[in-house]
Design brief:
286 residues; 38% helix; 8-stranded mixed β-sheet; alpha/beta; 12 helices
Length: 286
């Protein structure tokens, strides 16, 4: 996407009110099978702006999670709270039998949502996912986040590491992400981190009855091979792809390649249009 395209992303956003009158923003573009895309910690719906052009044939619903982008923070910012917001959005839009793509924290939200709403989700794609992120005091990234103070600036050295990629990524895109991340109050950063320090999604993962595709980079500095092995050992039906030379953000680094893997997986899961028997349906009957 060009620099002007990145600047225009905000104009694509729609708004609804969640219970209590809280504003919640999301992008809804394209036609076809519904693909719900959930971004990671400190990002926004913009996280998927580079991959969106390669997901032709899908209706893309891409929210700004609470406290991110144009969505107001609620009283709770744990993964379970964020999954509840997505559940409300899905109900408001009348969604059913959808595929969910989640990146990093978004992958955690996808797992939590799929465990509580088996009737809603037909397939999961986890980008750089983890069941136990373990971002406690002993983690250097967590310590760096705890040290952040208001007001944050886009040129804060923290963002050099936080948004670091293993392959070249569009500069205008990264600049917009830094600006949006710097606009998030540190109380939101810290409230989310409180949950990521202790969350354990293994129980939720064991409840899943849908096909799962896990895509990760071999050079991911945040969730290494141990996290990938735990996902594979815990989830009963998972296909794992490790992209060599990629970091924590493979959908930024190689959006076309990641989109190809996603679309191939969805085709295998849901079958051709009008098919009466799909892999997703078979898993739901288990």
């Amino acid at each position: 996407m060009t620099a002007s395209g990145e600047q225009q992303w905000t104009t694509l956003k729609r708004r609804i009110e969640l219970p209590g009158g809280r504003q919640f923003a999301y992008v809804d573009r394209g036609e076809g099978r519904v693909l719900l895309l959930l971004h990671g910690y400190s990002d926004s719906s913009r996280s998927f702006s580079l991959i969106a052009p390669f997901l032709a044939g899908c209706r893309l619903i891409i929210p700004d999670l609470a406290g991110h982008g144009a969505s107001r923070a609620g009283s709770g910012l744990a993964v379970a709270d964020l999954a509840g917001d997505i559940d409300c959005l899905a109900a408001r839009l009348g969604l059913r039998d959808i595929a969910v793509v989640g990146h990093s924290m978004g992958a955690m939200i996808a797992i939590a949502l799929a465990a509580r709403r088996r009737d809603l989700i037909g397939a999961l794609v986890l980008l750089s996912g983890s069941l136990r992120p373990s971002l406690g005091e002993g983690n250097p990234t967590a310590r760096a986040i705890r040290a952040l103070e208001d007001p944050l600036r886009p040129d804060h050295p923290f963002f050099d590491t936080w948004h670091a990629c293993s392959r070249p990524v569009d500069a205008a895109f990264l600049a917009q992400l830094r600006r949006e991340a710097a606009e998030i109050p540190t109380r939101v950063w810290h409230a989310i981190l409180d949950d990521l320090a202790v969350i354990d999604l293994r129980s939720d993962a064991r409840q899943l009855r849908v096909p799962v595709l896990a895509i990760a980079g071999s050079e991911d500095p945040l969730f290494d091979a141990g996290h990938r092995r735990q996902l594979a050992a815990t989830l009963g039906s998972i296909r794992s792809i490790t992209l060599e030379g990629h970091g924590h953000n493979p959908h930024w680094e190689s959006p076309r390649l990641v989109a190809e893997h996603v679309l191939s997986f969805l085709s295998a899961v849901f079958g051709p249009a009008g098919s009466t028997e799909t892999l997703s349906a078979a898993h739901h009957r288990r």
